[in-house]
Specification:
The protein is an alpha/beta fold. It has two domains: about 170 residues, Vaccinia Virus protein VP39 (Rossmann fold, 3-Layer(aba) Sandwich); about 55 residues. About 30% of the residues lie in helices and about 30% in strands. It is built from seven helices and eleven strands. The strands form two sheets. Strands 3-2-1-4-5-11-10 form a seven-stranded mixed sheet. It has a four-stranded antiparallel sheet with strand order 6-7-8-9. Helix 2 packs across helix 3. The longest helix has 14 residues. The protein is globular. It starts with a helix and ends with a strand.
């Protein structure tokens, strides 16, 4: 379901923002606070390149991977259009196609990890991220604030409007601490065109991620709640 969901979004993901380049630059600036100069970075859930392209534009050597082949292909095109090179591979974060000790930083931003619905799958992904990190490397993750969300259990998100009056909103159906998300995209016309994509998430808490990260071999984790638009998980570097 997850790969198909992002294949379906690959052509229009940028339309969630009125000006996609603005959050690209802002998020890269925020993430760069935790990425040493000259670091080689793997964005293992790069999508169409929001974080990866922004970091490449700041001079980092960035490699991308993503479960969605269509998103991975578009990331390469969008990077080239902005004058940077971004090698991107279609790959599952539980089986990264890179050698041991290949990167200084591994990044999985914007709620990618919670697509994995079991502790075993999350642990497998975290072990893969640790495997491809060089000794002293840093892992950076961001997820929704599921500590709050699990208390509130929302059933929807407010609508947002992108370029061309494209309207987006989500409906959530809860099953314990997992939920199915329906993403609605409405494109103006007579009548309006409606496209719906579905994905599933584990509303995994910070404590649960920390516990699994420690089991994967990360010795210490810091959570930063105000450094990024989602809570940010950062392991020490060097």
């Amino acid at each position: 379901m997850t790969g198909a969901f992002y294949d379906g979004l690959a052509g229009t993901y940028d339309l969630m923002s009125p000006d996609w380049d603005a959050p690209m630059a802002r998020q890269a600036s925020q993430l760069a606070e935790f990425i040493p100069r000259g670091a080689r970075v793997l964005d293992c859930a790069c999508g169409i390149g929001t974080q990866a392209i922004g970091l490449a534009l700041r001079g980092y050597e960035v490699v991308g991977s993503d479960l969605s082949p269509k998103a991975a292909s578009r990331a390469v095109v969008e990077a080239s259009a902005r004058g940077v090179t971004l090698p991107v591979f279609a790959a599952d974060m539980r089986a990264l196609p890179f050698a041991d000790d290949s990167f200084d930083v591994v990044l999985a931003a914007d709620n990618a990890l919670p697509h994995l619905l079991t502790a075993e799958d999350v642990l497998g992904a975290l072990r893969e991220m640790r495997r491809v990190l060089r000794p002293g490397g840093r892992l950076i993750l961001s997820t929704r604030d599921y500590d709050a969300i699990r208390r509130e259990r929302p059933s929807s998100t407010p609508p947002s409007v992108g370029p061309g009056r494209v309207v987006w909103f989500q409906l959530w159906r809860w099953e314990g601490d997992r939920y199915e998300l329906e993403m609605f995209r409405l494109t103006e016309g007579d009548p309006w065109n409606v496209v719906v994509g579905k994905a599933r998430y584990w509303a995994i808490t910070r404590h649960e991620i920390t516990d699994l990260a420690e089991r994967a071999g990360f010795d210490y984790v810091e959570w930063l709640l105000d450094a990024y638009h989602h809570p940010l998980f950062v392991t020490p570097s060097g």
